[in-house]
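Quick one: structure tokens for this chain, please?
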Amino acid sequence: MSKTLILHGHFYQPPRENPDTDMLPIQPSAYPKENWNIRITDECYAANAYSRYLTYNGRIERITNNYEYLSFNFGPTLLQWIRRHREDVYGRIIEADRISLQRNAGHGNAIAQAFNHTILPLDAPGDAETQIAWGIEDFSYHFGRDAEGIWLPESAVNDHVLDAAISMGITFIILSPWQAERVESVPGTWRNLGASPAPYDHPYLLERPGGNLAVFFYHPGLAEGISFGHFLRDADSLYRHIRHITDHDGTRMIHTATDGEIYGHHEPFGDMCLAALIQRVHSDGEFTMTNYGAFLEAHPPKLRAVLKGGEEHRGTSWSCSHGVSRWYKDCGCSTGGEAGWNQKWRTPLRKSFDEISSRLNDICVQQLAQLPCETTLPQLLIRYGRVVSGREAPCDFARSVLGSDAAAGDISLLLKLMEGQRLRMYMYTSCGWFFSDISGIETRQNIRFALQAVTLYDPYTQDNLFYLLEDMLHSAKSNMKSQGRGSRMVREIRDSMLPIGVEAACFFVLNRHVTRPEDYVSLYGDFTLISMEKSSLGGDIAEIEKQSTSERYTFTVITEFDRTEGLLIHCRNEYPDDGPFQELTMDMLGSYTVSRLFIWIDQSLERVTDNDLDQIIHDMSYYTGISRQSTYQPDKHFYIANMGTCMRTLNSLFRLGLVISSGEHMELIQALLDFIFQKGGPGEKDTTNRIISGYLDKLTEDIRESSSDNLYRYVKEMLILTRDSGFVPDITRLQNTIYEELNRQLTEGRVSKELSELCMQAGIVVPD
């Protein structure tokens, strides 16, 4: 009889979007990627969806989906982002759960997570229930089934959280072994654990007045080794560790839980170690990899456990030895920082948010009383989970609450109240308290959510909630003198926030100014462009709608160029409230808008017509030919000017679709690449590698949409050409798709010569 192995990955990123636009800003620290969601997706989430199992000489023998064997949860705010931006990865995650259901007697690998990672034991009455309900709804929407288990953020738990989970049908949770106070050794005989961990080899029963819940206490040594001991650098060594633990302890079941990002982000190529471990488990037969739901059905708990109460009896967690103190006071736990720093700022931050939260709830209840709605706020919030998950459009939700003939003003008011509640939840995201200083980007993001919620509710109260938040955070002092107090941060963040809709309106106007009609954009995060027309003042009038609230705004936007100050934008709100013109700079609009402006300008400048190509190929062929045979070289400025022409032409060929699968312009591409590699510096070569990588990603989509032997042949020639020219593009996505094509043809009983040759160039082994 084989032993049982369960590895759980907790995959999560906090919501980082601009609370007005719902767009992620550019994050320079994530370079070379645009933001951290993209970077961690490439390094971890996508890597595990398409993990490589390599031969001895580094060729791809198999591309595996680790999620088929890994127990996992995805934070809803992360999974929603992946669905919007990496549909291929999202599909593999959902498919893995479906496959695991079939293999594990109807129990899938995926479990739910409370929505935006608040510390549930510290949530206000009703909020913990909402967080769990939203997490379960989000899970059901994505995976198409009921959730059996749920990941509690930071595994933070108390009796109230247990009762809420039980009431919503959750059957099991996963906790740290240090969270148990005592366990039964045999029925009716209790053992106080003290400083010892709870046994890990079977589930325990947590008894509550409203029902029972199973709890799995993970193996601490294995979790620590995977997370911090570099166990993911060698699959054979990891396998020996697992065998040693079970042999030493005499157990037939072992499981552990870690942050999922260790599998590839924190530990580079950790996904490949996991893939190799899965292969080793299958080949040796000593262990069977399964999930918690399947194990629980076969081995229901026979013994009970009681959890610790934590400091002040507020609950416990896996990352604070004091309980949940890390998220409301200076308990001594911190990540980063310097000697002598403290976290006294946590208490005023928590208290100020609690006060703002209470005021926002009061305002919401008062305004709901003005609407033809008999549903209470807690009930509404539970129902609003369908909107938060993406299952239901905001307006459809509003009409289901207010009636199909509800007035537009009532619909907008209800949705503004609900959006304010979502932002109120977001301001409690746990990362805001986790690290060493209040000035961190995580805390600032939480403050942005709070300020945006206050902005939405400001028209409905006489209280100055901005001032209240500023005043209460005055006692929250940063460890860095340059950052000052929390009150200063509130002012700085508030002053940097544009009025609702301004950024989106300017984005749409600038898009129309610097692009051709085929590149016009009518969606910007949460905003849709309704109409745009010329203004009598010389600018543009943009009418936009905020989807989450169904509210429409009209702005007049005037642009002008100043020789000293550059591009200036003047924006005035025409509706719903007339206002004065506000002068904006590019920095005020944000890095995302600026980055798209540069891209649009590049695309406009890159347009090379077919009539230009013959002359360019003629000139560049002569240039590279002469330079290879002559010791004389022209002045540096001469080839710098030509470098720009080459890169612009290459971009035009790749981005604008002048290259076709028949191989047209291949000679020109080779001449351009030869010149860039011969005369370009590191920056030009790096940029060219990215240009090529982007084009290969485009060809990847072409293969997904309509594969053919001609396309396989063309992609193979492109790989050979670029490598022969000295470039090494990123072909990760291309390999993923080629491998899927290979499996499809193998299933059909034949592999075409063209695909086989493409596999060889992509480093993929074709089975005999």
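The first helix runs from residue 36 to 49.
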